[in-house]
Amino acid sequence: MSSSTERSLVLVKPDAVRRGLLGEILSRFERKGLVIEALELRTMEPSLADEHYAEHVERDFYPPLKAFMTSGPLVALVLSGDSVIDVVRAMIGATDGRKAAAGTIRGDLALSNRENLVHASDSPESAVRELALWFPKL
Fold it and tell me: Which one of 34, 35, 81, 120 has the fewest beta carbons within 10 angstroms of its own beta carbon?
């Protein structure tokens, strides 16, 4: 990794896996020139959900979010590239798929705020914390 290369955690959420959108989503990242350094199909354990979403655990929206995120398989991946965090955030679009711009993953493929296909680290600090949770050996 060069000094300008950074890493981001991306979760392709259970709704995307259920809908068969994994290939579409991964191909968008690859076509952009981002590097998949690690990829794992797994189901999020409730304890990992609590750690991953620690800042939201006490919020009203958290119980249904936790139920959704632990409802089935998801794909966790490590993406790297120049300014990967900002690049991925732009590619996935606004959190609410109904409001996300056309051409973004959520804008093209999501119709919900909670079931919005993809999670991505929102800052270098979040990326470090999230990557340590999901890929502790990296």
Answer: 35
Integer Cα distance of 127 and 138 in angstroms? 12
Query: Tell me, what DSSP letter sits at residue 5?
Result: E
Q: Which of 110, 119, 121, 127 is catalytic?
A: 119
119 is catalytic: yes
pLDDT single digits (tens) 86-112: 999 999 999 999 999 999 999 999 988
Q: What pTM value is reported for the model?
A: 0.94
Q: What is the largest CA-CA distance in the chain?
A: 41
Class of domain 5-134: alpha beta
DSSP state of 103: T
DSSP per-residue letters across 46-76: HHHHHHHTGGGTTSTTHHHHHHHHTSSEEEE
pLDDT digit string (tens) for 21-63? Answer: 999 999 999 999 999 999 999 999 999 999 999 999 999 999 9
Q: Which pairing describes strands 5-12 and 118-120: parallel, antiparallel, or unpaired?
A: antiparallel
